[in-house]
TrEMBL record:
UniProt cross-references to PANTHER family, sorted A to Z: DNA UTILIZATION PROTEIN YHGH
A Pfam family it matches: Pribosyltran
Name of this protein: ComF family protein
Protein family per UniProt: Belongs to the ComF/GntX family.
Family annotation (InterPro entries): ComF/GntX_DNA_util-trans, PRTase-like, PRTase_dom
Annotated Phosphoribosyltransferase domain residues: 136-229
Annotated organism of origin: Algoriphagus boseongensis
Signal peptide: none
Top-level taxon: Bacteria
Amino acid sequence: MRLNFWKDFLDLLYPRNCVQCGIALLDFEPHFCTKCQGTLPVASYHLYPFDNDLTTKVKGLTQVNRVMAFLRFSKKGKSQHLLHLLKYRNMPEIGEELGRLYGIELMSKGYQEEWDLIVPVPLHPMKQKRRGYNQSEKFAKGLSKSLQINRISVLERVKFTETQTKKSRLERLENVDEVFSLKKDANISGQRILLADDVITTGATLCACSNVLLAHGAKHVDLITIAAGGR
């Protein structure tokens, strides 16, 4: 009874609301209400991960293996709204919850045996300090919890780059050239790696990271993001 009292008291002081629509959450709803979770624009890339428009996008830029995204991105749509909250409104829990939900779906399809490590795409230290967290690491954390696969940050961003948002495909590729490196003393030789990021557009950032991992002995690298977007 005492536990219930304090829980009710805390809920009164700090109400838990759906991150999508804002209504009060029930006890069994972590971050999304049941309705909003059911209307997420879920994609089906994990059902054909070796041959889809995302694998076509990165072909020739890195050694193509699986490429998957949880949500379909659309301008002014639900996925864009969630990414905006995650990246610019100090809501890291969104990334972790989306990772958890996608991990559950991947588990149901037997993917938990496919990887040894989950590696997030890193932010530059200056940008991470400003934001307070790395949104890709939060997504990787949720995936790790559901898939029960170790999450490890073995990559570092050694150059500060301008935002990719308004750059062309060629400009994005040039913008991430020699930006990433493997951390000192990291050993990924022979590891099957799931590389996680928030969104894939041209694929330039993910491919740059993938190439670093492959160059240091990773057996293979699969790419996974919260959302897949235009261009």
